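Q: What residues go here?
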């Protein structure tokens, strides 16, 4: 009998406490980070990709360690990139340049990781680009005039 009474009192207290919050509705403008109505359809600002020819643009620093480099030249003439038609390899497939210091205007060589079949032979670097790596613009994007969304303090210089 006492257990029942304690349980009923606890339920009544819980209901009384929750009823003070039940009447407060959250406005759609207060939901999420945007502070606008969830029903608004924003119009994004347009940013332009450069139209610089290959070898003529300055490379941007990488966003973080291991980040794929951005493409520093126009890519419109090279698209679409398919398994059977990949114009990137015409300049960037240069395994002989691995580990060398690049001269200005020299294409960045496709790295050994792109010549390695991570599924079937993860320790073997082949003499050909692995088919899973043909879609360059899946990871690499052209440089644009868009500002950074957040401050980036990454530095490629070793601090130790």
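A:
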């Amino acid at each position: 009998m006492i257990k029942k009474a304690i349980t009923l009192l606890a339920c009544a207290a819980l209901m009384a406490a929750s009823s003070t919050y039940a009447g407060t509705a959250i406005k759609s403008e207060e939901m999420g980070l945007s502070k606008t109505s969830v029903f608004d359809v924003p119009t994004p600002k347009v940013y332009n990709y450069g139209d610089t020819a290959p070898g003529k643009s300055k490379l941007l620093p990488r966003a973080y360690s291991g980040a794929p480099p951005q493409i520093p030249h126009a890519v419109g003439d090279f698209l679409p990139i398919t398994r059977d038609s990949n114009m990137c390899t015409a300049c960037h497939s240069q395994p002989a340049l691995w580990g060398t210091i690049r001269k200005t205007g020299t294409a960045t060589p496709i790295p050994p990781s792109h010549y390695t079949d991570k599924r079937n032979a993860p320790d073997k670097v082949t003499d050909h680009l692995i088919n899973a790596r043909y879609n360059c613009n899946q990871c690499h994007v052209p440089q644009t005039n868009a500002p950074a969304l957040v401050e980036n303090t990454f530095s490629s210089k070793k601090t130790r």
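A: Context that may help when evaluating the design: The chain is about 15% helix and 0% strand. The domain at 41-146 is CATH 1.10.1130.10 (Flavocytochrome C3; Chain A, domain 2).
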